[in-house]
Design a protein that fits this description.
heterodimer, A: MetI-like fold, B: D-Maltodextrin-Binding Protein, domain 2, D-Maltodextrin-Binding Protein, domain 2, about 50% helix
Chain lengths: ~270, ~350
């Protein structure tokens, strides 16, 4: 085996494997082991039931949409925070992390009240014939809320490292604002932005606490997969809950792997 | 030194043990207020009878969720749940004796309840009967019958009504229930959540609620905002109780746990149940307007009388007096469970035709 110049490879790697094993692999492998109790046709019947499929579509669709919104909006917020000095900047900066700290149930209840047919935002929308809360729209809003810090916090340090002189040099060489953004800024920031997007996406897929309050939870329409899992548990259907958990696990892992690949490709 | 302290602790622990005992009552969502009062009354009575102090802790949540918590190891001495099937699940796991339902009178259900309508002040949509609830354009709030005991009784109340109306045509009755759920915009996981959606968020024209929960909403959230409508017919809901044999055997609390359940059947326990708008088993304690009046009388004396009058007035009866049918008339719990609430059964099929 090749020896590394840096000492401590055996110890640190051993620790990493142990740590990941205890915290991630062992708990998640119980999902796989428990699902093995099901026969393949039984598993497939649960995993491909129309209600389950509708919930995957909603969960992954709304999560992707929320992550994309955050990708654009978070980039902008990070840009403003890094490039401009204005009074209250530190305050805004601290505000970004709030969705991390707030119990998600609080976020959900607040959003449901705000977006409900009698809420500040929900009432005018209801007048216009748009159901804000208890619809997929409300789910996307909740997921955008919980995912916001990820993109901002991953893009921000990269932008800070990027000297403003680079952009100024591009300008003096005759590049338009659009060219500077596309050719100078974006290549540097894109890998970080994709990482942030992936994190926000992953967080949204697993989100439960905030969504159930604004979703409406109607089967086939506004029922997310995590809720379907909880519902199955409450009917003592442990096998069914495990089957759905396994589907989420596999699909999430595949998607995250793909996004990581995309990130590596964009970093080249 | 440490050893001395330890012996001291052990000594005091031993000395205290016969004097104080703890019970955990794991219950469903809307019984919080009922059991607060029951617990205080029972502790008083037990102290007077035996000299022992009993501290009863309570835990509340959706009935099935609570049963699962006990199944997963929550050390409940007594369970007081919304559905017999939830205690059956405990019996299947060996925590409760299989014959639990014969251990106490009235199928181990010391009080009953039913499903009534809570509507907005003045009943703007004129909701009087189950037929009004399924009318197009009426927005109905109820919880998910797969997770909420109360919502399961609600489903069966609507189904039973439709079955009666169609003279036993099950297909027509299922279509009636499907029309009901078509009118539901939000499906909460528990009865309390549904009440919040209706009362606090202002969603829906009618809340299909436990009778006691409707009275509580009237009292807590103001009689001026809502009215109770008692439909001409509804279901006789029998929320059952049981002593968790495995837990009480381990903890040595069998005697006091049993006495606690028996207390629910005593005159005092039955009176407390009636006060909280549960229907007691012993006759004479219940009348349609009585629980509202009793609850309001229990509220702070200031303005109590006028609010009591308003509360009583807010309880309206449907065109005919309330007639109650039972689950047994619908085929019994096991059959009902299989036909309506199992995966892929009638309730699931309502939603699978959507989209």
């Amino acid at each position: 085996m090749k020896r590394f110049a840096l000492p401590g490879f055996g110890l640190s790697t051993g620790f990493t494997v142990l740590y990941l094993g205890l915290l991630v692999l062992i708990p998640l492998s119980t999902v796989v082991v428990n699902t093995l109790n099901l026969s393949w046709p039984a598993f497939w019947a649960i995993a491909s039931a129309p209600r389950a499929v509708a919930s995957y579509r909603l969960t992954f669709g709304a999560s992707l949409l929320a992550a994309l919104i955050n990708g654009v909006a978070g980039f902008l917020v990070a840009w403003v925070l890094v490039r401009y000095r204005f009074p209250g900047r530190r305050f805004v900066d601290a505000l970004i992390d709030l969705p991390f700290a707030l119990p998600t149930a609080v976020a959900g209840i607040t959003l449901a009240t705000l977006l409900g047919p009698r809420g500040w935002i929900g009432a005018p929308l209801a007048q216009a014939g748009i159901a804000a809360a208890f619809s997929p729209f409300g789910i996307v809003v909740a997921l955008t809320f919980v995912g916001l810090p990820f993109v901002v916090r991953t893009v921000q340090p990269v932008l800070e490292d990027l000297a403003p002189e680079l952009e100024e040099a591009a300008a003096t060489l005759g590049a338009t604002a659009g060219q500077t953004f596309r050719r100078v800024l974006l290549p540097h920031v894109l890998p970080a932005a994709i990482t942030g997007l992936a994190l926000a996406f992953a967080r949204s897929i697993g989100e439960y606490g905030s969504v159930i309050f604004v979703a409406g939870n109607m089967p086939m329409r506004t029922e997310i997969t995590p809720l379907l899992i909880v519902t199955k548990l409450e009917q003592f259907d442990y096998a069914g809950a495990n089957a759905l958990a396994l589907v989420m696990l596999v699909v999430s892992f595949a998607l995250l792997l793909a996004i990581n690949g995309l990130q590596r490709w964009s970093a080249r | 030194m440490i050893r001395m302290l330890l012996t001291f602790f052990l000594f005091t622990l031993q000395a205290q043990q016969p004097k104080s005992v703890q019970l955990l009552n794991v219950s469903y969502d809307p019984t919080r207020e009922l059991y607060q009062e029951i617990n205080a009354a029972f502790a008083r009575q037990w102290k007077a009878k035996t000299g022992q102090t009993v501290v009863i802790r309570q835990s509340h949540g959706g009935s099935s969720k609570q049963a699962r918590a006990v199944l997963d190891g929550l050390q409940a001495d007594v369970v007081t749940l919304a559905l017999a099937s939830d205690i059956d699940a405990l019996a299947a796991a060996g925590l409760v004796a299989r014959d639990w339902q014969r251990r106490f009178p009235h199928n181990s259900a010391p009080y009953t309840s039913t499903i009534v309508f809570l509507v907005r002040k003045g009943n703007p949509k004129k909701i009087r009967t189950w037929d009004d609830v399924v009318r197009p354009g009426v927005s109905v709030i109820t919880a998910n019958p797969k997770t909420s005991g109360g919502a399961r009784w609600t489903y069966l109340a609507a189904y039973g009504y439709a079955l009666e109306k169609s003279r036993g045509n099950a297909a027509q009755a299922r279509a009636f229930v499907a029309r009901l759920y078509r009118n539901v915009p939000v499906l909460d996981s528990g009865a309390r959540g549904a009440t919040t959606t209706f009362a606090e968020r202002g969603i829906g024209d009618v809340l299909l609620a436990w009778e006691n929960e409707a009275h509580l909403a009237l009292r807590e959230l103001g009689a001026g905002r809502f009215e109770i409508v008692v439909p001409p017919s509804s279901i006789l809901a029998e929320p059952p109780v049981a002593v968790v044999d495995k837990v009480v055997a381990r903890r040595g609390t069998a005697t006091v746990a049993r006495a606690y359940v028996e207390f629910l059947y005593s005159a005092e326990g039955q009176a407390i149940a009636a006060k909280h708008a549960y229907r007691p088993r012993s006759g004479g304690l219940w009348s349609a307007a009585a629980p509202a009046a009793a609850l309001h009388a229990a509220a702070p004396a200031a303005a109590g009388a006028s609010r009591a009058a308003a509360g009583a007035a807010a309880v309206q009866s449907g065109p005919a007096p309330l007639r109650l049918f039972t689950v047994a008339q619908l085929g019994g719990w096991a059959a009902v469970q299989k036909a309506h609430f199992a995966d892929g059964a009638a309730f699931d099929r309502i939603f699978e035709v959507w989209q």
